[in-house]
């Protein structure tokens, strides 16, 4: 089925949302649900289909073109197609890297547009934001060096006109710039305050990957980002309201991040003791799977 469906997609235009959206979803789930021995073949089939990749290129570009001033509150058919496109491309990046699959056609993405989509949001639906963040995680994990992807944007080539104080740091973080990093971190923090479960999971995962990327590039910058005082206020905000327990997956994962990068001004021995105490008093067998995994990672990190 991958052959006819992927060929069908390649014959469509981005406006053919009724046909394209379920087709891209089928390709996405075919990659994720197939057996490991078949997954490599599935990736090769999709990456060898040049017309499909050209179609995906057009779909990604529509993200910046289909941005009316007032988006509907519900997920429109256009936005649903964009979600499917970004998720499929993120998966192709992941599996192409894993299996070192031959690439017949590259995709080009404007990094500035991707970052601005998260930083400024511009009334984009939550699911579309989550999909774009999945893509951003994929490129961060590969250090922007995927053979499937060509990154373009204002920071893809070091410029002599950059402000001198930040030029060395910008060079180390290339193709990211320091200002973009801090704007992205602040925006991720703000998105977490919304306390939307799906959005919170994606935001924390993106923040984890971003700090890991920064740590490889420049440890001082990574530690500086992880120890921003605003993170502590963010934790108190997440713990406010009806559910004050530390045993929330996003809270545990944030705590793990701060412990990993030794942000003692954000998480103290007192908070660590409180989490251990709550875990000791909880019925671990009744904890949701996401909470159990997050607690396991936290205790291992401690």
TrEMBL record:
<protein>
    <submittedName>
        <fullName>MEI1 protein</fullName>
    </submittedName>
</protein>
<dbReference type="GO" id="GO:0007127">
    <property type="term" value="P:meiosis I"/>
</dbReference>
<dbReference type="InterPro" id="IPR052133">
    <property type="entry name" value="Immune_Signaling-Apoptosis_Reg"/>
</dbReference>
